Amino acid sequence: MGVTQSRAFDHGRSMALGRDSGRVGVSDPSTSSESAATGSAREAVEFPDAEYLVLSSRLIPDLDGGYTIATLSRAKQLAAAGVADGAGPVLLTFDPGDAATHAEHRATFARRGAIAEPARMRNLFDEAAAPTGGAAEWLRAAADPALSAADGIEYRVLRDAQGRPYAALPVIAANPDWHLTEEPVLVYDETGQVIGGLAGFRALYNTWLRVITSAFAHDRPIAVICESRQLGELIADWDDPRVRIIHTIHTMHLEPPYTPDAPMNALWTRWFALADRFDAVAWPTQTQRDDVVARFGDNGRAAVVPNVVSAVDSRKAEQEPGLVVVLGRLAPGKRIDHAIRAFVAADVPGSRMEIWGGGAEHDRLAALIDELGARSRIMLAGYTDDPGRVLDRASVVVTSTAFEGQPLSIVESLMHGTPVVSYDVRYGIRDVLGDGGGILVPDGDEQSLCDALRQVLTDSALHARLVAEAPVAASAWSSERAVRALADAVRGALTAAPRR
Q: How high is the pLDDT of residue 474?
């Protein structure tokens, strides 16, 4: 049963923290520490002179966890680096909420310091309705009178604040490929009559993007940072010679058993078939990038661009001896039952476990805790809006997840000076802990997980060493590194010929 320690032996890793879950807690990305970091990033990193667009399927406070935080943090770092004289990129979203709701989202993000300039966060459907009723002029102009609703297709009618219809979207229920439909998006005039349609979401999205980019000078380069694979599929044929698409990746591309040659789902399979059309692909870790290149070949456009992790103000004086923390969604893929059994088997006197987060596994985990007779030592603590404080209190964080995309949670744990114990799974865990701060054990080996927990909780010298290593290891994943890598990827894309 192998237990490998970071630096001296191997690497360690972490759990799933507030950034990894939409129902754990959202750290404020505008702390004073980050302000200092972004200031130095502005001095150190210069982005090419261009228009910058960031495309995201949606950006909703406290939803989509690490994806939302990473996307907004990247945009904020672009602003800090001087893009658009500090206003940052234009953030474009495509979710069909109403304008008032989107305004609330912008206000919330602004209040949290998550966006530099709220007016530069725009939504397609906010701009699809005309003030006098019906669809906006750009949408009416694109409508094909020959397109109408097919028999048997359900539609969602979108209405403005006065209840007037302006568009209707086909409802493709229970189909993950809904975005590829060519069922028409219907367009209304001010009288409430359908005047035609656009051939699916692809046509709708690309029409809006053409409207936005038409406002830029004809010889002005445009860097499009696409944060969504679904959007990437829909814009892969964007042939504007000014445009370069830098497609970021947020997730694991593999299915079980998560080995480099494991199967992929249909969305990823289609995406890889289109990947050569992107001017750069920004993988979040070196390991994932290397696995992809080994399997699919190197097209010369695969970059490593870590997602931004905001600096934190650690309060490690609050650490509570013996406190083991799990922080993340209570989801099957997180395998929190492994962590519970390992903790109970370690049986370290005075130790206790707090499991922060919510999700579908709550009742099953509660039953397991009762079955093990561990209710006095293990608490299902629920949601926290201050995951940083939880990490400051923890002596060690444990994760038994089956896979990761980029483990931002591990980086944040290390920033708080909290050692981590984890299974060795893809992706990013070894990348993060290469300079220390944790213990890594073989995937699925609960006995090794138990042994590692016991070791960290009982060996004070080991624990002190891991605590000292943690912030050093985290520093390699600083916002400055992420911004510099992104600037290099953008520069390479803008100086090369377009791929489409």
A: 92
Residue-wise pLDDT for 345-378, tens only, equals 999 999 999 999 999 999 999 999 999 999 999 9
Q: Do domains 4-17+313-458 and 28-121+204-309+480-495 have the same CATH topology?
A: yes
- Residue 97 and residue 126: Cα distance in Å, rounded? 8
Q: What torsion do the CA atoms of 327, 435, 463, 20 make, to the nearest 10 degrees?
A: 0
Residue 259 one-letter amino acid:
T
**CA-CA-CA-CA torsion for 33, 387, 94, 221, nearest 10 degrees?**
20
How far apart are the C-alpha atoms of 326 and 409, rounded to whole Å? 11
Please state the rounded mean pLDDT for residues 401-430. 92
Distant-in-sequence, close-in-space partners of 79: CB < 8 Å, separation ≥ 6: 86, 87, 88, 89, 116, 117
Is the pTM here over 0.85, yes or no?
yes
pLDDT at residue 347, as a whole number: 97
Distance CA 246, CA 280 (A): 5
Q: What is the rounded CA–CA span in Å between residue 149 and residue 168? A: 10
Question: What six digits make up the tokens of 318?
Answer: 């609050």
Q: Supply 221's token pair.
A: 């380069």
Amino acid, single-letter form, for residue 464: A
The 10s digit of each residue's pLDDT in 217-239 is: 999 999 999 999 999 999 999 99
**What's the fold here for domain 28-121+204-309+480-495?**
Rossmann fold (3.40.50)
Rounded to 10 degrees, the C-alpha dihedral 236/238/242/246 comes to -20
Domain residue spans of the chain: 4-17+313-458, 28-121+204-309+480-495, 137-199
Q: Which amino acid is at 193?
A: Q
Q: What's the CATH fold of domain 4-17+313-458?
A: Rossmann fold (3.40.50)
